[in-house]
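User: quick one - fold this with pyridoxal-5'-phosphate bound?
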Amino acid sequence: MIPQCNPKAGYLEHKQEIDNMIARVLDSGWYILGKEVEAFEDEFAAWLGVKHAVGVANGTDAIELALRAAGIGIGDHVATVSHTAVATVSAIRRCGSIPVFVDIEPDYFVMDADSLEAVFSMDSSIKAVVVVHLYGQMANMPRILDFARIHDLVVIEDCAQAHGAALNGRKAGTWGDFGCFSFYPTKNLGALGDGGAVVSNDSNMAGKLCALRQYGWDDGRISQIDGVNSRLDELQAAVLRVRLKFLDEDNKARRRISAVYRSGLEAISELKLPTERENSEHVYHQFVMRLSNRNDLIDKLAQEGIRCAVHYLHPVHLHPAFGYKVSVPVSLIQTEIAVSEIISLPMFPELTDKDASQVVTVINRNVNL
Ligand SMILES: *Cc1c(COP(=O)(O)O)cnc(C)c1O
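Assistant: Sure. Structure tokens for the protein plus pyridoxal-5'-phosphate:
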């Protein structure tokens, strides 16, 4: 069996070192917001090239707290994409804000700057943009940022699938006002449980995030602002410190696997393989290709023990929960076409070339028979 993802393999790869770190934390008797969290925050910020990182409980909270730190709240309009994890939109809703959906670039599956301009021309009350760097590839940040600066929009990057992705040599999360990361076990940088972080170059905002994640407390444990409980724990931070050391190597492995897929599949005209943006570094959180009859292929691969996935089956604006709480001012035609055609092949750093070649062989045997 070849799984679509395999978080346990990432643990086993560095089991001894992770186990030692966990034992150290257990022995210390200090389990929430301590030395490991502080060390991880410093190491992660340095790795990204940003001033501050603030550990939080998960990636959804990271987006919510970034929005709240920026002063976005009840009734405010926030532009984002519908082709994303539901989490992006849940975070906006948790602030009491209204998500306003923007269509995607069909080649890259991320926010289309032209569509953002069209949406804004119909709804100039938009105050913030949550840009999602989906599947490991960055959106067109230069254009989106130029537009956002003109209209004074807060820019939040959802980097939950883009640890290490870069454009023009600059990493995801370092472009906007805030970068939000998830360390869910299957992400490019994964903990052994939930975790997340917000990064920023703004020291005031970093301080506000530290307060927001813990009841709005100041140093004297007086709640100065309306906060929540969203802390990163010491065990997860210790695990993340080990895994961060191997993140570049892991991303390289993902790129190597994607090259095996690409060379083995590029001759099949029915498939549209992922396109890499010029001057960008794609970190292949997922290898997502398009195929008009993808459900048949998914079934055939499953019969041969190869698990694929669809990220995501339904655009967020069509989930029953969101119907009347979101705004859809423009056609989301590229989003709706994409969700009917996409298929995510097995992708995790420990996937062997042999298994990746097996995936290629079985696809070649089954496409369009
Ligand atoms: C995983 C993910 C999130 C949410 O992260 P959690 O840690 O699961 O809360 C947000 N956005 C995107 C695009 C994701 O893939």
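One thing worth noting: The two ends are 23 Å apart (CA to CA).
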